[in-house]
Amino acid sequence: MPKYAYHCKTCGEDFHAFHLMSEKLEKKDDCKKDCSLSKVPSFPINLNKIDKVKKVGDLVKQHIEEAREEIEKDKKKLKEEEYKP
Hints:
Elements: E1 3-8, E2 14-18, E3 37-40, H1 56-82
Antiparallel strand pairs: 1-2, 1-3
């Protein structure tokens, strides 16, 4: 059975569902509201055509650097508030 990706416009949730190609999904199983579903197109990815694949640690390094910058901004802000008369 194929796997399809859907987006519920009512609750904003993305989810996957398995069903036959001939079936049309009208509602999420666990949704209590009237669903407004749209099928999200999925495309096969050929990894050989991707020029640059990021290393696993690159995302972590980027997050750490962004956190450091944010901490520095917070420190400056606290110092400015501290010295105000």
